[in-house]
Amino acid sequence: MAANMQIAIDGPASAGKSTVAKLVAKKLNYVYCDTGAMYRAVTFAALQRKVALDNDQALKEMLTDFDLKFVPADPEQLVLVNGQDITRQIRSTEVTNQVSLVSAQPSVRQEMTKRQQEIAASGAIVMDGRDIGTTVLPDAEVKIFLIASVHERAVRRYKENVKKGMATDLAVLEQEIKARDYKDSHREISPLTQAQDAVLVDTTSLNIDEVVEKILKIINQHEKY
Ligand code: CDP
Ligand code: CDP
Fold first, then answer.
1. Which ligand approaches the C-alpha of residue 184 most closely?
2. DSSP structure class, residue 10
3. C-alpha angle 202-203-205 in degrees, rounded to nearest 5
4. Cβ neighbours of residue 200 under 8 Å, at least 6 residues apart?
5. How many CA atoms lie within 13 A of 48 on its CB side?
6. Which residue has the higher pLDDT, 223 or 140?
């Protein structure tokens, strides 16, 4: 396997991006970067510091005092902001429902894109998000666009919530996923869209291992050319 490849995995909410990106990175011994966690961390910090979520200038100022670190840990890496562990808080329903508003702000996108490109500059990487193949890493050697039906994605989130002991309603989850997809696909800057040179992988009827296998095959095929 060639060293220093960039692998971009984009797609809508709950398509399985972070789960499979993590496994692909582990298999290849590459660094993994969850860009969604970065936008979630900005959203959590804004809520905590009472910064208006649609105030681009105020968010820009907030980001001058925003030391974001990923710390490797088992079973999942920790997310620290200015030393505070916010790994669990960034997955709250409040953050999930507000993150698309924050991620549409120009200063936030500009700053996160810059930081993501800095992380990628250090070597081989698997990065997942919404605009990795189109904006953050336009020259990535392999680009995957992961999709699944809205119903299947809601079912996946539902099962995840049940496992965590969270009260949940499948119809509400389906609505929330649709709303977030709409906002992420219709914002002005770097909307969620498939890069022209990305390979579309529909995971609706595939389990995690099958998706990982498919992506590794695509990476291997790229190697041959
Ligand atoms: O895991 P899930 O699909 O719920 O979302 P995520 O990957 O954690 O991303 C959370 C939100 O961050 C998305 O709904 C987008 O609004 C934003 N995001 C983005 O705008 N650009 C990225 N590269 C990654 C995430
Ligand atoms: O990162 P993204 O929001 O795209 O999705 P995720 O958080 O990786 O996956 C959402 C849920 O779907 C997780 O509980 C995964 O275990 C599950 N999943 C699945 O059941 N089948 C797949 N092929 C991929 C993910």
1. 1
2. E
3. 115
4. 145, 147, 194
5. 15
6. 140
Contact present, 190 and 103 (Cβ < 8 Å): no
Instruction: Using alpha carbons only, give the angle 155, 161, 164 rounded to the nearest 5 degrees.
Output: 145
Ligand 1 within 6 A of 100 CB?
yes
Q: Whose CA is nearest to atom 20 of ligand 2?
A: 156
Mean pLDDT (whole number) for 85-103: 96
> Which protein residue has the closest C-alpha to ligand 1 atom 12?
36
Q: In whole numbers, what is the pLDDT of the chain averaged over residues?
A: 95
Q: Which ligand is nearest to the CA of 40?
A: 1
Amino acid at 172: V
Which bin fits 14, alpha (ψ -120 to 50), beta or left (φ > 0)?
left
48 Rama class: left (phi>0) / alpha (psi -120 to 50) / beta: alpha
pTM score, whole prediction: 0.96
